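Re: beginner question about structure tokens

> Can someone show what the tokenized structure looks like for a real chain? I only ever see the sequence side.

Sure, here's an example I had lying around. Input first:
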Amino acid sequence: MTVKHIIQQRFIQIAGAALIFFIAGILLSPYLISSHANGIISGSSLNLELPHNAKDGFDSMSNIQTALQDISAGVLPAVVEVSVVDVVKQEVPSANSPFEFFFSPDGTNPAPQQREFRREGLGSGIIVRQVDKNVYVLTNNHVVSEADEITIKFADNKQYKATLVGKDDKKDLALVTFEAREHIPTAVLGDSNSVQVGDWVLAVGNPLGFDSTVTQGIISAIGRKSLPNSEIAMYTDYFQTDAAINRGNSGGALVNIHGEVIAINTWIASPSGGNVGIGFAIPINNAKSAIEDFITKGKISYGWIGVESGDLPASLQEDLHLTGIQGSFIYGVFKNSPAYEAGILPGDFITRVDGEEINDMMQLLLTAGSLEPGKKTGVELIRYGKKMNLTLQIKERPASEQEADEAALLWPGMVALKITEDIRERLHLANTIGNVIISRVEPHSPADVAGFQSGDIIGAINNRPINNATDFYKAINESGASEIMFKLTRGNQELLMGLVK
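And the corresponding structure tokens:
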């Protein structure tokens, strides 16, 4: 019988009325206390003779405790310590004699020396596969990303030198491998899509260097996302848990009551750097395909549709008649991208991709990124107040070193907003000066190269007055024109500028 089946059997034994019985036992505690003098509580190690109702509750709690012990015993062998060493080279002043300055040939201080420093780090890992002698350990990218040396350590103090198979900072995942001739226990990976708020979980890892530590809690929330421009990986969502997680838990397992790994412990929210009951873990389903990609390609492949998207401020929602509608707004489209080839335009509002509802910019990023390159998928959007359906073919997201080149292909490379009364007051703009302002210009984009600047006020495009954001997007999306002429106000100057499509 497997550990999973044993655990399930244990929990079947837990009656739905366990807590009621336990509370009944507490209510009957005066009886127990009064009966003490009559010898009802007796024996070594507190062998309690309890009233029937209280005993049922006590037995149920005992079953829960035994189940937690079984879960821990089943999972601990598959969760390891990951220790790393990063060799850093730094220049330090020469330690030669101070007299060398006076007696050196040129009278100068000797050149600084370059020395190596060993910077150590610690995290956790989950053994997810063994193929012949090769054992694979899943952990976080931030645990091993800069490591020159990686060591896997088991609870019985066995150690193995490991090497990096692949890493990815967008999901904060990494896979390392070591060789072992003997059988190594591997973790059972569960289905994180079935996880619900309130589920019991155990966090297993090596917090602060205390190996094989198990803490218990519940799933506090699901679908947590990182904030844009934060250091937290964006290409995944997170489970939130109150199971204690500290430094060193990163890369360890978050386990359900069936002994299955349903997430990888990753980061905490804490003003002090220690556990305050707000920990976050990457759902295991977000890592399953990553494991295959690391082994077969050494990296994770992401789907890419080729848009610059974002959430709309309230003023722009109202201006574009999108108030109360969920989705992600397209500020720009990369030329020759899947979106460009499918006919998606700046100003479109995407509400669904591949049948999945899009709630915001992060949801669009995650949904598109999870799609297999080469796949054809449907996109639902709103353009100028009308619903549309398009089909595009997913491409693989370009490498990060190509992002500057991508910006050169981003059309139009600027964001326009309707000028509200608040904006007029803050910028001291007269009521007679335009209705639409450029709020941001993307570096290296066509708009940036042409000389557009944040704060420029758009009066007209191709001699057509621009009164709101819809006018702006209709004008720049007009087919047939290879160059668009803008009438702008910049400070006290009126400018006429062209933007090549």
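Each token stands for a local structural state, so reading them left to right follows the chain. The chain has four domains: 3-40+47-77, 79-88+115-297, 303-407, 412-500.
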